[in-house]
Structures are given as C-alpha cells and as structure tokens.
C-alpha cells in the first residue's frame, strides 16, 4: 500500500501527534508499505526526505492563535496532483484543520479512502480558552460542530483512547470508529545513562527528581506542576523537577518558578533531541513522570515514560485512567495541594515506588509500535476491500 499522512504541525516543531505518526509511518515502512508526508512548509526546515520518507510541503503562514503552527490553503490542486501521480491508496490526516481539509478534498476528488485520527480534545473548555484567549459563549458546542465537519467526511475515525472514542461516537453515532493505541518502538527505550552520570550533567539531579517532557504551552498546565513542586519542597527540600521542552509559555514558567522561590529546584533544559534524551537517562532515572494536562487523549511522553519503566503522577482525567494501572498516582486536576501530596508520597514510600516500577515495566508491551502498525494496516486494507 501507499499511504499519505497529513500533518497540521511538523518539524522543527515537535508534539505527540508528530511523534506518534512518525512512529506509525516508520513501522508501516518496515512492513513493506510506502509512505508520503504532506506538511506545512516552515522556514529553515525543508528537507525533502525525513527519516527516509518523502515529505511534500505546502506553502503556509504562521497561525496567530497557536505558536508553532502554520496555516495552508485548505484546497490545493497541487496536493491532488501529487496524490494522483504517486498512486496513493489511502489518505490519513492527523488534525482537523487546513491539511485535514486538503486530505478530504483529495480523497473525494480521487475516490480514495480517508482516515482521521482523533489526537487532541480541542472541544475541552480549557483548550478553547487557550486558543481563543477568551471565554466563548457556547464555545464547546461550536467546537463539536466544527469537529463534526471532519468526522462526517472521514471513512474511519481512529482514537488512541477508548474514552475519547465513546465521547466522539455519542456525538456522531453514524460513523465507523476504531480504537488503536499510539505506538512506540520499545527497543529505543531499553538503555539509559547510569544514575551516577546524571548529577554531573544536570546539577541537582537526585533520587527525588521528577520529570516533565513536552511542549511548553499553557494548555499543558505546567504551571500547576511547578506550583505542586514548590508546595512539596516546603516539606521535603530534596524534591526537584526537570522540565524538558520549549514553547511559548517557557519564559512565563521560569518567572513563576522564580516568584515561588523554587528556581533552584526547577531545571529548564530547553529542547533535547529525542535520541539524546533517551540516552541521557533522564526519563529512566526520574522518580516519576508528572503532568497536569487535562487535554491529552493519550500522551506520547507518558507512553515513553512507561517504556522506560518510570512511574507516573498525572491529573485524574478519564483518558489517563486507561494508562494508570497500579503504576502511579492520580491527583485532582488543578489541585496544587493534592499534587504536592502525591509528590511527597512518591518520593518517600519506597515500597510503593518499587511496586509502581514493577507494574510499569509490565505495561509497556501494550504500546508496541509494530503491533499498532499492524492494526492500522488492517483498517487501511478493510477500506480498500470496500472500494
């Protein structure tokens, strides 16, 4: 098969959608399929082949409401021509925006199947407020109506979370949905640096150091994590936090750490290349991976923490319930005191911590990228048989 993937955000920007889709594409290649990437052009990054996969760029402009995102024309005859020339069999888009419209348009013009993966809960009120910078009357209802435009034009909607699948299906019951987890290459996570190497490179790293990895945007609620660390550190001064990533909220988060008096306990590393991060041992040796995000459907960085055998401390939102099974702690969303209590428990209860480590190691096989690619292959083939 020849599969074309459409990205709303692409390198040099990195998020969970990019990471999970790249992993899927590489595993499909291993299974003998050909893959094409269609992405918005970003200044300074125009490589024609990415990880050996041809990348076709569309002219774009920055999207004012979401830093790092670019907007293309929603209908491009050049895209239709490229899909036709390359003999693409299936189109797969990863977000409900202009590249998604291009995928749908090309699929309908060429009578090809189109698959959508529902990666982000953009109808969550906190996400709407982040993008629009305001409390929109009926914002959630309007966003669901917008989502419906893409759902109705998709032949199959895949969801990495069963909870989100049912949530979307209740809104649009007449369509076909398939639950397929995001995938990771487990072999990439088997080795990390030795624990004694970490303090030399990351001053202050100790056995009570927690970790966040991801885009530094307001929608990730990293401010809640920093406040929780500041609260917990009042009782246990050895507690630390490493924040890996970059984004529009970075400077504001640094200022927050300074204002809370915990700047010496919160280390901002900036962006670290993925391979370098895995070799560094930061994920493997962190006490736990912590996130307060409420908008994740199935966070890739959380899955990668699981692959490294690292316990979790996460906001108690329903999609996270599918990946916490005796391997971490929940805290009430936005509740700084509850988060601080979880950090203190995780850093002090050695018996609980050891059990979380053991259970986490057992879970990683659920997210094997090769198996995820096989499941997507079955979806694509079922659509081609129908055609």
**Content-based structural category:** alpha/beta
| CATH-scheme architecture of the largest domain | 3-Layer(aba) Sandwich
Number of strands: 16
Estimated share of beta-strand residues: 15-25%
What is the overall shape? globular
Q: What is the level 1 CATH name of the largest domain?
A: Alpha Beta
Quickly count the helices. 16
Task: Give the N-terminus to C-terminus distance in angstroms.
Answer: 14 Å
Tell me the CATH topology of the largest domain.
Answer: Rossmann fold
Radius of gyration: 21 Å
Give helix % range. 40-55%
Major beta sheet, strand line-up: 3-4-2-1-7-8-9-10
- What is the CATH homology-level superfamily of the largest domain? Glycogen Phosphorylase B
- Return residue spans where pLDDT drops below 50 for at least 5 consecutive residues: none
Largest sheet data? 8 strands, mixed
Give your account of this protein's structure.
An 8-stranded mixed beta sheet has the order 3-4-2-1-7-8-9-10, sandwiched between helices. Strands 11-12-13 form a 3-stranded parallel beta sheet. A 3-stranded parallel beta sheet has the order 14-15-16, sandwiched between helices. The model has no long low-confidence stretch (mean pLDDT 91). The two termini are 14 Å apart. With 387 residues, it is of the alpha/beta class. The chain has 2 domains: 2-183 and 368-386, Rossmann fold; 186-366, Rossmann fold (3-Layer(aba) Sandwich). It contains 16 helices and 16 strands.
Please provide a brief summary of the model.
This protein has 387 residues and is an alpha/beta fold. It has two domains: 2-183 and 368-386, Rossmann fold (3-Layer(aba) Sandwich), CATH 3.40.50.2000; 186-366, 3-Layer(aba) Sandwich (Rossmann fold).
